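Re: that chain you flagged

S.,

Sorry for the slow reply, it's been a week of failed gels. I finally had a moment to sit down with the sequence you sent. For the record, here it is as I used it:
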Amino acid sequence: MKTAEQEAVLRSVRKLIDFWQIEAHELAGIPEPVEQPVVSREPSGPKYRHPITAQTWDGEGAQPPWLREALTREGYTVQELRLKDDETSGA
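Prediction finished late last night. Pasting the structure tokens below so you have them in one place:
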């Protein structure tokens, strides 16, 4: 049994097929949508650390408030807060 939403979609599709005069054999060549595989990845670890509070950020997503404040109010530079490669692997 189809839901009301499914019935409404089928009516819409039928109307479009009639309007555009699409024939069944024309629909046969339409490829099925392919689902993209979900890629899981290892957490990257912190890339930035506040030297006093030790708060960290992995560099993904929005900048955390502590980082914005450190850059704008506390006078730190991005280079001063960025961890070196050897520090990121051990964190």
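What I noticed first: DSSP finds five helices and two strands in the chain.

Talk soon,
D.
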